[in-house]
Every structure is written in structure tokens, then in C-alpha cells.
Amino acid sequence: MNWRISLLLAGSMSPVWATDVDSVALLARVQSKVRDNARRIPRYVCRQKIERTALARLAPNLTVSVNKAAICWTLPDQGLPKVPSLSLIQADRAHLDVMLAQGTEFFSWPGGRSFDTSDPGDLLGGGLSGSGDFAGFVISVFTGDEITFEYLGSCPGSSCVRYRYDVPLQVSHYMVKSLLEKATMGYHGTFDVDPQSAELVRMTVTPTELSEALPEACDIRTRMTYIRTTMQAGDFMIPESTEMEYLDRDGSYSLNRVSYEGCRQYTSESVLTFGDDSPKLLTDDKTKVSSALPVAGSELTLRLASKIDSEHGSAGDNLEATLVRAVQDTEGGSIPAATIIRGHLAELQRVYFPCRQVVIAIRFDTIVLNGSPIRLILEPIGKMDQHGRGIFSFQGQRVLVDRHFVSRWRVRSSAN
Q: Please, are residues 121 and 129 in contact by the beta-carbon 8 Å criterion?
């Protein structure tokens, strides 16, 4: 059956019982369920599969049209914003692991055991990124103080009912960051509920008074859908997928789609694996290492040992490289050529305008000495982003980067 027809049929069967819902009692049930979920749920970790796209207005002469004084467009409930001449300019994909612990989200590289940051932008380069959609928003809305709610009735074309909520600035932890600014602001949105089970179905988040905090932004919206899953500790409500949209005053539009897989209770021994053949990082090896680290300020010439295929790779992939030549260590000896250096692909972006190219970002942060990995801070000699990741550009629609790729890095310090 045609998908559009199926949708119309579902809409024609909108339930009549929604008008008989005791909205106050139902809201109390939903709040109780979410609070109980937040109290009982164990630390758990999921693999995020992220797809990011960016579009911009292209003038007839194929230049980017910028008009910061233009009236803002708004994001529709579905589909792309109605901005004229909107064209795809770049796209990328990424994998990360996200963990919920004590109501806070933490992120790591895929398969990692160390969740050290609450901001995925600390790991991933380029593009739009955000947090809160995994669990932060729903916990704040249903367990916080000074939150107001309004019953809106039946969901359009679906067997659920809808509420509006509002989180004022004084109790909000919602921070929006652009390249130049960051601001904490209040937010509002809607959530849909199954009136029979009082289960949360979906939720939207929109910042309040966005233009005052970030004048270049027109609209930001996050959408989340939820499912119930069974873990060792019981049944819990967790996100199934999320979408984050950003619309700029010049008409530029960014979309992040995130899906979750392999969710499980987290233990210190847990490592998620999904059958990839990239080299695994042995980050918890406790073996004492007698070899000294390279001298701070040393230049390392690295030959890539992994392969980066723009058609199949993703940011988050593990990378290995080897030393091209020996370097001096801190005890007067030397670290031999072919020593392994490990890191991650932090960005793999396919650019379509103004010309076809592939942009990658690399972070190397581990050296293997006597078979054991030691943390090391390296910065590229050449182009880098604000997090010290090396940025490299290649012309063409599909790019394969392999052992012929050599880059130069400088040792800042050890990261022990």
C-alpha cells in the first residue's frame, strides 16, 4: 500500500475517546512513570548512528545567497523549510556511544570504556551537534520545578493525546552554541502520550526567545520518539530516534538524524561491538611501560595504516598510523620507526558546493609502547580546528585515503 495513502487512512480514523480523557489524571500518570523510569533505570549505553546534512540558499549564479537582514523563516512540522533555492551543500555521518548516568548524558568513541564528555562536539568535528535528546530533556520536563503544562487534545491523525509544556529560563539547563556564541535559554514544546498506557510516544523541544540569545538563528527544533525496552534490570522507556533541525537567518538549514541501537546496561567491563573490522583500542591495559614518551615539541611524521573510504566510513572510526622515522624520547633514547599511533576519524564530510570534495578531521591521542597504549596529546602541523584536530581536504566525489597518506604532528604533552 502506498505510504501516503496509509497515512491518510490513519488520519481518517482519529479516535473519538480523546475528548473524554481526564487530562489532569493522565498527566499525573505520565509524570509518575517518567520519574519512576528515571529513578530505576540503570546506567545504560547505546550506539548512536548520526546522519548530518546541511543545505543553503543558492542564488541563480550558483553563489551562496546571504541576507542576514531577511525576515526569519520557520521550521514546518514535517519536511524541509519553505526557503527558496535551498540546495544540499554538505553531508556526513558519524557513530558515537552515549551513556546515561544519574540523569546526565556522557559520550565516548564507539567501543570506548571512558565516557569523559557531556558534549558530543568535543569528539566530532564540523556540523551540528547537541545533547539532551537522549534523556536530558524528558527528565528535566517531567521531574523539574516551575514547569507548566496545557492539554491540547487529540494528536493529528494518531491514537494519542497531546500536551504543551513550558520550561522557563530560570530553571532551564538548555544551552545553544553557535560558532561565535553560546546561551542558556528557556524552552517549550509538545509531547504525545498513549492515553491507555500513559506511555510517552514523542516529544518536541524548541528554545524560547531564540533570536534574543542568538540573533543569527531563526528556528531550532528537536524531535524525539520513544520505545519501551527490556534490560537486565527491568523494562524502561528509552529514545528510539531523534531529529535536530537548525534554520539560520540567511536560510541555511541543518538536520541531524540520530538512531540508537545495541542499548544495554553499562558496566566497567562493557564494550559495544558491532562487527566492524577497524582496529580496537586497548584503553584499559594496566601494564607498566618502561619506554619513555616522545619529547614535548617533537615532530612526528605519521603514515596512515588504516583506510578511510568516504563511501563507507564514518566519523568515530578507529584509526592507526605508524611513525615514519624514529623520534627522541624523554630519557635520551629513541622511539623507533613503525611505532603505532592510534586515534579516531573525527569528521568525514562530503562537500557538494562550491566544488565536490571530501573533508576529514583526524585526532591522534595514543602511542603504543611495548605493546601498551599510552595517552598522548598531538596537534597537527597544518590546518586544524578549535579542538586541535587535523583537517585535510581531498578533491572528488569519492576518496580513498590509505597508507600513501602521510601527515605531520607535534607532541604537546602526555595526557596521563
A: yes
